[in-house]
Amino acid sequence: MLEVTNLRKVYPTGDEALKGITTTVDGNEIVSMIGPSGAGKSTFIRCINRLTEPTEGEVTLDGQELTRLSKTDLRKVRRDIGMVFQEYNLVERLSVMENVLSGRLGYVSNWAAFRRNFPQEDVERAFEILETVGLGGMENKRADELSGGQRQRVGIARAVIQEPKILLADEPTSSLDPDTSHAVMDLLTDIAETENIPVLINIHEVPLAVEYADRILGLHNGELVFDGKTTALDDHAKDVIYRGAVPETATQVGATTRSETRATDSTTATATPSTPHRAATGED
Amino acid sequence: MATEQTPVTAWQRPTVFYNHTVKWIVYILTTLFVLWSLVSLLAGVSPQRIVDGMGFGASLVSSMVPPETEATAVNRVIDLVLESIAMAMIATVTGILISIPVAFGAAGNLMPRSVYALNRGIISVSRAVDGLIVAIIAVKAVGIGPLAGIIAISFKTVGFFSKLLAEDIEDVDMGAMEAIEATGASKLQSVLYGIVPQVVPRFIGLTVYRWDINLRASAIVGIVGAGGIGTLLLQAFSRYEYNYVATILLAIILVVLAGELFSAYVRKRVQ
User: Picking from A78-92, A213-227, A238-252, which range would have the lowest pLDDT averaged per residue?
Assistant: First the structure.
């Protein structure tokens, strides 16, 4: 279970990218984080495994606090967090197999890594995963010979072979065409189910998010303005997320009732106090 | 009031100097400096002297023909050319072995500022001093012979190789390295998988290129006593054995050309 509490990030330039985010990701749910460019989606996901150092707040994975860990302990925790990137971030000049096996580097010595000497079971598992992601027989191709969709599959395979407790995906479909995007989202959904892990996906295409996600997190200008079941994401909620519509003027009674209704029909989703996204319905 | 509101219609291309006055001052000063250099250095040079000089040059070249072909003389040239080639080989290998850690240390995207500054310092020192001067110092230190040449050429290799390799390391796609770090790999492993494969082609290209440069250097450092074919060249000159000089020069040109062809071929293949 991933718990994020009051996560803040202020860049050296003074930009406050995250203004105290609190949320939980658990089970094998697909959670999509949506929001306009610059809302802080990438910063949020990168603060989880500290590719970007958060300024304040806590990140806890299965009870272990991450933000204060030493470099060595952080490496151990990172083995349990898989990550998929927008630009795939493969090593272009290495083979598909080497790229996949690099997901196991946290478990082998430097010398073994240098000689590409991975344990037999890792190699077997790599073959299995390549088969699963639809790249069977491609192990000796160089990563730069692959198409975008194939590269992203290698990126996913590299994350899956880590046997992570959670999978983070930072805009995994933004560089792909619509069909390939769907294939990649299908794959991520399958993985959540077969590996029984939650998947947190940053995505800016709302229809894609709605189609696949169990739950939506809406980020606007560094604030979490929506956190709920996908079914609860109506047009007004989208307005709040994408245009920052101020919901204060709404009738408070209606707002409370509705968000309570929503809160009761979902077990995992919780409406955050700063999420009166339904409150302004009357204003529309 | 009316003048203030006149729309700006005149336009001048912005200059990289502070303004156009500064620009013209710099141009004038540069021109004056070049003129002064010409006048002060070439004051006593008459056209007659140039014509005479060309005549002397021609007679020097003609006195080189035919090149010396006597067996023992040629064998001596071959021996020392081989010594030069061996020096270039050893110096290239040594220089590059030292260059690898220096290059990674001098990559600003991998190292903290202090390590970066230290290694950039090493590179600057190596680049600042000319090869022949290093060779003179090396001869003073370890005596006449190829060892001095090897030290001098290795020293120069470090500056050249580390600088260019470091710049290539700084240009790599850091996304790959970041992704590998995100899997929980150690820093060394991340560099090994994320960075090294990206710089290997450049590394091979630079190695062959530097070997080719070192081959030329090893033919020259003998002039100051640091071993190789240069030693023989200097001897032949000082004894006015111009036919022998011709043989030596031909041998050097042959070896350097062969090295350059090989280097060009290999670099074309890897890049």
Answer: A238-252
